[in-house]
């Protein structure tokens, strides 16, 4: 039985299950009828014995005919089964193909997949790959610390003194509004030449590093220039690392000042809008710069918070949330006289993408009212942090308070909860421009090992919501070598175009001292990172020996997949990691929960389970047997798993040593042989290094043939296993043509094509002309019919796929066909395997007519039975198609064949779209079971803005109440408003900016979303029985029976007379879940098992907490502010002081 899916929104009864209740549910007609369940009184007619009832229920308008008896319909079912089996035996060639394999037994060997050895070898290979990156990381981090320690700080350093390649220079030169064009760049920026490099998917220069500096940081500041000066020496270390390991990809140093220096040099990917990239907000930097965090954010929403200040607070909280990773836990609350959570989360929750989205949406609903009550806010926060009954990070604990100011220091609260040990750090943020005394806020931070920040305007938000990481890094720096541990990140999208990567990170510490005998510096310099592309890790896994349904996967300590065939995000966001839980990548059940927990705990294991799997086209569910084997990848946070079906324990390995035979079989790949031997599609695999890939299979085959004329299958540049198996399968499928297909007349049995597909990568379609309408994937391992046939016994029907919103099938030129396929199982020396799938393509119209005849009361020679006015006859699917509906439905609930001509163009649709009343009855009678799941990797078209025609939402428009509020005028808020107006004009809508667009991905047209998927599969009912759909005066009789050795359900029913039962319609189409997936408020109450990093650095007795942001703040001069704004309006912007808040000890 499937595990119930989580539901979108609150729990509620299943509408489909409750939509239809029949008093007649137990009143089945004929032998094998089900007994009624207890329920309300039933109508008298329904209490009659079935045999007495049937004559009373003749179809209206057809008084001479009665609904068929059960034994009659069982007879029809047997005729259908025999016809299908007969055609497949003659044309499918299963037995003949078995004989062909046995006749060619000397051309291949049977090899065994030993799961434990396989998974241990792959884990060892991945460990070796990552270890080489670790050694490079350590060389870089050690060198950086030594270079910085030897560097002499220069107060008078100038831009023209520094020579470097500015990665954004080319884009800025093309942009007349860029910083350098406005000011006239003084820095000596290198102009480089680049060459295309396929490893980087980019143009690179291996002789230089590149530098990226965030847009909101002034390149000419003393801090930045000194940073550029000493980091230049890293260039040689980067190059030496590459010399030792040519497979290295991006090597990056992310500085705590915001500077990024990376190697090799490549131009920065220019964004479509403003570039908001800041290395300190990248997932890998955050993970490397501090230990995990338990954070409570409290926001002052008292009445003194003006409209603009509240907006600044909301944006600040959202930016703060973006500095958290999946190793962190967080909650957000607002307070005035009392505190309350802003969302449905009542305790700390994991700072994953979906939870943060809930917070961000909830924060926008905060409203300012009441009086300031710091005590209520801090007591709430401390209570949250002291709750030990929940899952949390259990490392750094902190409170982040955003306020516009106040006088209360709440010392009694700190004495009660935090002193003398001060295990919770307090960070305070003074938001907006005002004249309040900030001393209490400074005192709170300084007496609780935190830091005080000011956010007077938009420009200060991003900088000041991430500077707290410097404070959290102090214990790491003071711990020294003990904290120098490489961590590996979640999967995320590389900003420079590598695709999905993981990054090894290592913190870099400031080893300088201010003077002889002075305390050790406690600042983190930054984080060193080296990328590893997921594709490089995938290359270490077995490609094709595991079969179509075998695979390797890997997960991290959060249970997120690093490798998995279902890891296919449709959109990626620069700012967030790609987090797909193992239990969301597969269909969740208790066995998989147990496997996941064991892997997270770093254990080895093996388990055979029965589980549900989703088909590749996501239309079907199969219950299958799978063997899971797993081991930890040492020296990392990852664990590796291997999944094998029992039939993939063995595989074929071709041994074509006879070159004459190689040439003979190879000739059957030439298009000149297709007319007589059938069309051949070859799987687009990497057979040789120099083989040019192409999405067009004909072109790919042409490239393959041209390459094979230059090299042999035994060439060192080629994958001999893939090539030999491909050529062997070419010859074996050709023998199938010769022995079976060529001498058969397909038209006699109304077949459009016959076909065979193999593990070796061959799909042969006969005759050649049928290839014109062949739409299946040329890679058998990626073809849904192939994978399902391996997992199912018997014949698998696959109707053409069509959506309810699309136009019906075009039934012209007999081109519409239904695939029927089955696996070829070999038994060789007691070893069983399934190396191929064979099948036929039925002509839809011809088989629909044949279906009518087979489900009728005549033999092949008889004419349709006529029933006179004085005789009694049973209805059948041919003569009485105006009164009787007869259909074949597959195991997913999709229409395959119908006796109704007008339904032929609906073949392939979910049957509820054809006859909702009947499909609901089948579901309620347990012929079908439903499985709901969620696709967290979907992409949705952006929603149209809801404020068309309104002013830009990023600009605050004061209300009349604001104008009448004296405090609003006497504070500097009015000038802040003016500044915000200018920002709004420049940045369009900074507050509401789309992160994907802001981060600079011009390709993004869709946004990530959660889609709810519903699949149906056969339930527990295998018997044949009749039932009545009770709809008052519109009751319908129906009969349903599974066809043995196939995935078909045969259904015969009276046609509906009215639509009283049409209310309950089952949905199969994928739908957008309005709450972005299962209700997050419910999910956090039962969090999935996870483990955080095993070492925590949140305390050091020698930490100096005196640097806590005591710097005096002064409001800007009114005259100066007016002058600045007028200059901005005139288009002559002066250079403001940089928003780099360097601590005094940042002077390097």
Automatic annotation (TrEMBL):
Name this protein carries in UniProt: Calcium voltage-gated channel auxiliary subunit alpha2delta 2
Location of the protein in the cell: Membrane
Listed Low complexity bias regions: 23-37
Coiled coil, from the record: none
PANTHER family attached to this UniProt entry: VOLTAGE-DEPENDENT CALCIUM CHANNEL SUBUNIT ALPHA-2/DELTA-RELATED, VOLTAGE-DEPENDENT CALCIUM CHANNEL SUBUNIT ALPHA-2_DELTA-2
Region (Disordered): 1-38
Domain of life: Eukaryota
Recorded GO MF terms: metal ion binding; voltage-gated calcium channel activity
Residue ranges occupied by any VWFA domain in the UniProt entry: 294-472
Membrane topology category: Single-pass type I membrane protein
GO CC terms: voltage-gated calcium channel complex
First-listed, main subcellular location of the protein, grouped into a coarse class: membrane
InterPro entries: Ca_channel_alpha-2/delta, VDCC_a2/dsu, VWA_N, VWF_A, vWFA_dom_sf
Family under the similarity heading: Belongs to the calcium channel subunit alpha-2/delta family.
């Amino acid at each position: 039985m499937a595990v119930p899916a989580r539901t979108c929104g609150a729990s509620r009864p299943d509408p489909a299950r409750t939509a239809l209740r029949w008093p007649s549910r137990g009143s089945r007609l004929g032998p094998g009828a089900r007994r009624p369940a207890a329920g309300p009184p039933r109508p008298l007619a329904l209490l009659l014995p079935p045999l007495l009832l049937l004559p009373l229920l003749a179809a209206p308008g057809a008084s001479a005919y009665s609904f068929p008896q059960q034994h009659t319909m069982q007879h029809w079912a047997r005729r259908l089964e025999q016809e299908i089996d007969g055609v497949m035996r003659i044309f499918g060639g299963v037995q003949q193909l078995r004989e062909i394999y046995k006749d060619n037994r000397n051309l291949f060997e049977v090899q065994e997949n030993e799961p434990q050895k396989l998974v241990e070898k792959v884990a060892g290979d991945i460990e070796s790959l990552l270890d080489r990156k670790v050694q490079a990381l350590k060389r870089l981090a050690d060198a950086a610390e030594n270079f910085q320690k030897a560097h002499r700080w220069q107060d008078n350093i100038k831009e023209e003194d520094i020579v470097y390649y500015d990665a954004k220079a080319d884009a800025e030169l093309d942009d007349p509004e860029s910083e350098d064009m406005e000011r006239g760049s003084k820095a000596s920026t290198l102009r480089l030449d680049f060459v295309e490099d396929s490893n980087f998917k980019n143009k690179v220069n291996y002789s230089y590093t590149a530098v990226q500096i965030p847009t909101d940081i002034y390149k000419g500041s003393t801090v930045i220039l000194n940073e550029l000066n000493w980091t230049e020496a890293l260039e040689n270390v980067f190059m030496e690392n590459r010399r030792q390991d040519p497979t290295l990809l991006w090597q990056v140093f992310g500085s705590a000042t915001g500077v990024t220096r990376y190697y090799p040099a490549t131009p920065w990917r220019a964004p479509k809008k403003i570039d908001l990239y800041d290395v300190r907000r990248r997932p890998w930097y955050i993970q490397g710069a501090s230990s995990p965090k338990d954070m409570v954010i409290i926001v002052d929403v008292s009445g003194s918070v003006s409209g603009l200040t509240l907006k600044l607070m909301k944006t600040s909280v959202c930016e703060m949330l973006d500095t958290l990773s999946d190793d962190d836990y967080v909650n957000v609350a607002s307070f005035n006289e009392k505190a309350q959570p802003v969302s449905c989360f009542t305790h700390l929750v994991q700072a994953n993408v979906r939870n943060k989205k809930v917070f961000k949406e909830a924060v926008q609903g905060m409203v300012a009212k009441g009086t300031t009550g710091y005590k209520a806010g801090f007591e709430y926060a401390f209570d949250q942090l002291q709750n030990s009954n929940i899952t949390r990070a259990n490392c750094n604990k902190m409170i982040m308070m955003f306020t516009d100011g106040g006088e209360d220091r709440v010392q009694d609260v700190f004495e009660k909860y935090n002193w003398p040990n001060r295990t919770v750090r307090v960070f305070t943020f003074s938001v907006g421009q005002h004249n309040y005394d900030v001393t209490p806020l400074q005192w709170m931070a300084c007496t609780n090992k935190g830091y005080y920040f000011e956010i007077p305007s938009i420009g200060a938000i991003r900088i000041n919501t991430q500077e707290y990481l410097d404070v959290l890094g102090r214990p790491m720096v003071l711990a020294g070598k003990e904290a120098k541990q490489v961590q590996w990140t979640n999967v995320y999208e590389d900003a420079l175009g590598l695709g999905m990567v993981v990054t090894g990170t290592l913190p870099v510490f400031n080893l300088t001292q201010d003077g002889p005998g002075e305390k050790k510096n406690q600042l983190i310099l930054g984080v060193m990172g080296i990328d590893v592309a997921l594709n490089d890790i995938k290359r270490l896994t077995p490609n094709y020996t595991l079969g179509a349904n075998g695979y390797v996967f890997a997960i991290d300590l959060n249970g997120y997949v690093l490798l998995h065939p279902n890891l296919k995000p449709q959109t990626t966001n620069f700012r967030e990691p790609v987090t797909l839980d193992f239990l969301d990548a597969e269909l969740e059940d208790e066995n998989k929960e147990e496997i996941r927990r064991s892997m997270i705990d770093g254990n080895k294991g093996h388990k055979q389970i029965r589980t549900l799997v989703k088909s590749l086209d996501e239309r079907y569910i199969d219950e299958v047997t799978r063997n899971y084997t797993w081991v930890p990848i040492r020296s990392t946070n990852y664990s590796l798993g291997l999944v094998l079906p029992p039939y993939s324990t063995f595989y074929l390995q071709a041994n074509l040593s006879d070159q004459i035979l190689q040439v003979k079989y190879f000739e059957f790949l030439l298009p000149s042989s297709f007319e007589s031997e059938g069309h051949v599609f070859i799987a687009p695999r990497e057979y040789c290094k120099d083989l040019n890939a192409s999405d067009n299979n004909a072109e790919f085959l042409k490239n393959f043939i041209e390459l094979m004329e230059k090299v042999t299958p035994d060439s060192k540049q080629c994958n001999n296993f893939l090539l030999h198996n491909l050529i062997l399968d070419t010859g074996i499928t050709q023998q199938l043509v010769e022995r079976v297909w060529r001498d058969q007349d397909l038209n006699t049995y109304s077949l459009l094509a016959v076909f065979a597909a193999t593990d070796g990568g061959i799909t042969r379609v006969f005759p050649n002309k049928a290839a014109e309408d062949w739409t299946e994937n040329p890679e058998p391992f990626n073809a849904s019919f192939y994978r399902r046939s391996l997992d199912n016994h018997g014949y698998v029907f696959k109707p053409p796929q069509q959506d309810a919103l699309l136009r019906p099938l075009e039934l012209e030129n007999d081109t519409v066909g239904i695939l029927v396929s089955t696996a070829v199982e070999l038994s060789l020396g007691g070893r069983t395997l399934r190396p191929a799938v064979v099948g036929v393509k039925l002509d839809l119209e011809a088989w629909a007519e044949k279906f009518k005849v087979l489900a009728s009361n005549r033999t092949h020679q008889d004419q349709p039975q006529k029933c006179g006015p004085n005789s009694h006859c049973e209805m059948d699917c041919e003569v009485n198609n105006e009164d009787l509906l007869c259909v074949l439905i597959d195991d997913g609930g999709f229409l395959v064949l119908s006796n109704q001509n007008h339904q032929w163009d609906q073949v392939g649709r979910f049957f509820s779209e054809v006859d909702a009343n009947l499909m609901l009855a089948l579901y309620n009678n347990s012929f079908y079971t439903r499985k709901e799941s969620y696709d967290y990797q979907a992409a949705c078209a952006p929603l149209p803005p809801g404020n068309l025609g309104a002013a830009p939402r990023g600009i605050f428009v004061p209300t009349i109440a604001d104008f009448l509020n004296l405090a609003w005028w006497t504070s500097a808020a009015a000038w802040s408003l003016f500044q915000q107006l200018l920002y709004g004009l420049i940045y369009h809508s900074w507050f509401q900016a789309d992160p994907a667009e802001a981060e600079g991905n011009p390709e993004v047209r869709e946004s990530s979303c959660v889609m709810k998927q519903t699949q149906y599969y056969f339930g527990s009912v295998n018997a044949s029985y009749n039932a009545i759909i009770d709809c008052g005066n519109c009751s319908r009789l129906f009969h349903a029976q599974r066809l043995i050795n196939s995935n078909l359900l045969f259904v015969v029913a009276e046609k509906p007379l009215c639509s009283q039962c049409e209310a309950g319609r089952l949905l199969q189409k994928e739908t957008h879940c309005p709450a972005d997936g299962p209700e997050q408020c419910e999910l956090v109450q039962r969090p999935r098992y996870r483990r955080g990093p095993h070492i925590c650095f949140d305390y050091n007795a020698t930490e100096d907490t005196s640097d806590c942001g005591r710097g005096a703040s002064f409001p800007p001069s009114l005259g100066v502010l007016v002058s600045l704004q007028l200059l901005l309006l005139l288009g002559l912007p002066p250079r403001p002081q940089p928003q780099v808040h360097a601590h005094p000890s940042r002077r390097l």
